[in-house]
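Closing statement on the thymidine-5'-diphosphate sub-project.
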Amino acid sequence: MAKARTAYVCSECGAEHSKWQGQCIECGAWNTLAEIVVQPAGKPVAASRTGYAGAGGPAKIRRLASVAAEAERRSDTGIGELDRVLGGGLVAGSVVLIGGDPGIGKSTLLLQMLGTLGQRVRGLYVTGEESLAQVAGRGQRLGIALDGLDALAETSIERILGEAATAKPDVLIVDSIQTIWTEQLTAAPGSVSQVRESAARLVRFAKETGTSVFLVGHVTKEGGIAGPRVLEHMVDAVLYFEGESGSRFRVLRAFKNRFGAVNELGVFAMGDRGLREVPNPSAIFLSAHAQPTAGSAVMVTREGTRPLLVEVQALVDQSSLGNPRRVALGLEQNRLAMLLAVLHRHGGAAVYDQDVFVNVVGGIRVQETAADLPVLLAVLSSFRDRPLPDKTVAFGEVGLSGEIRPVPNGEERLKEAATHGFRRAIVPKANAPKKTRIGEMEILAVDRLGEALSAAW
Ligand code: TYD
Ligand code: MG
């Protein structure tokens, strides 16, 4: 039998190299190569290794129409917000990576999920971080029926897979992947090579047996899961659990999902009995200002399948640096730089000597371009130290030539804002309904940035 060989994998981009070197040829990152063991290819891969059906024997050509029906066996997890982010329930044989800061509630969420899955499925919770007594204690506090739940405190992947092969769980949780190691490698647990190899074995296990596997991953300081790209390639879905420290709200976001939309959000609130779903989160990300405040603008975002009202805050201040700072939290940094250039050219406000900080309240990330207009309104409001009029909401994409472009689902966004008592909406002309108001809300349709700014103040 062919022997296992070593190779070197880049922790940034996942590229594989046959020998060690200081810089990754693929992505150019320095000091990111780590040793891994590559198993020999061996015999041709059987159908059971690649398909979900779990049938043995060599692979055969099949008409896709007959396969599609069984491709996705989904089951509800019993937690609606989690199902939503997963794309409509848990897929059998899928591998889901849940990342997030330590203490954000990853273990709590998964334990609660096993609780709600309850008697319907067999769950196995593998912990490499806590003792079984701690897990049981938490389960009790969460009010989960523990009699149907199996748990294992183990970090060796060989032993975990051995136990799992006997226990045959439907859902396997590994908390956390950074603690798991294989005897085949000498590298320390938590290193890229150990994490990658352990994850690869778990992925293989999931595909071979049809078990749904959840991997918990702690986020590193740089914001990625240790060996980030490497794991992202291997799993079916990557969900990030986010939230601001001090806030009890938590947002679960699909960063990659082979079985659903990637911009879907699930919202939870952490309480003394664990995580509670927030099925109607539309207004929880607004901070309650007693009076209109300079540097604040409210937008209606539509991440995923429902509208959400969020507040964008900006602080614009005289810079003492030659290179003024541009900091965007919850938004894309490059987009902010571009928007400031548009503001200069088409809005007549020069902020080149100002530090600009922009933040989306509540730890939410807004990735859609509908945030462009509210970002500029917040920036200008701070720059001029003039609050936007009370109960104003805005959305719209801003183009390089200062035009305001429409965004999807305009009417739905407007209705949501009207429901929450907003009085004025500044929106792209193409998104405006024929009527000039919805309920109590006046609609100001704008075509150009200049028009939007004069409509706002
Ligand atoms: P945990 O799930 O252990 O986080 P992670 O696995 O992501 O590291 O969550 C721990 C935090 O949640 C901790 O700060 C305590 C808090 N918590 C509650 O507020 N209520 C609860 O019922 C539970 C179980 C935890
Ligand atoms: Mg944990």
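The first helix runs from residue 47 to 50. With this model delivered, the sub-project is considered complete and its resources will be redirected to Aim 3.
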